[in-house]
Amino acid sequence: MPAMFNKLFSLSALLACCPVGISGLLFRPQSEISHQIQQDTPEKSSLIELDCDHAEWHAEICDDLCVWVNYTRGVAQPMQVCGKHCNSNDQKDDMATHGLRSGGHRDDCDSLTTMFNNIDSTAQHHLEVGANIGACVVELIAHTDARITAFEMKEDTANRLRCTVHKMTADQSSRVTIFGTGLSSVDPQCLDLSTNDCITGGATVLSKSTATSTREPATRLDLLNLDASQYRTVKMDIESHEMHAMRGGSSFFHDLPHGAHLKTEFHYKGADATEYINLLASHNFCHKTDFGDDKVYYKANPGECTPN
User: Does the domain spanning 11-54+105-195+214-299 belong to CATH 3.40.50.300?
Assistant: First the structure.
């Protein structure tokens, strides 16, 4: 396995992504993909230049960056996941790391593997929007044959996701493609974010003292021209920005095959909830079930269901 990802995960790499079989790009050096970058539109040209000052990822950073935790559910050998502490002073885990350390897996990922395996489909791809450190990516690799396209906007978290995949076997890692960018309804740009993933005593807290402000890249999914027909499942967990990501991927979501499933975090209330439900219905998504704060929808034929 090569020692570095070079700059494969900047927004420029999005343009090298072919519609099918994109997982093979994960460990290809920039020199091999640069000739595939096409600048036939202003949007693509701006993608090539946009990196928001993110540094190149190198495998050598993983041991210093990671608090290693084990994924253990239903596997013969534990799979390592690159977790994190909130800060070096209190040594408390972030939310994703806490879930893995306390139970060997994330509870919200179990239903995702069941969903993928229970769909009768020839499509083999899964779209993971808001992949975090890779708890659900590891779960899917361990318990499905899915090929995963993963998006993570925050640079430090995306680097941990890359470290998680770097620890996989060559066969496992070849099924994962990581893009260090967020998905939204905006044209490619750097966005100012203030984020906090800390937990205290097992409870989620938002503490101003540990919040960080960063500049992170975001773009529209439709600029990638992914072949939606190859995707069986989609998961979106991006802190109430799911509606924006869907708007930026209107063609992709419209073209998903009949029976494809979408698991989306749903924190919307009032008029925003109605707007998101109507947007889902416009792409022929029918509500199927709920998992805590998540809702599961399936792709139906026009007129097959009513919004709920």
Answer: no
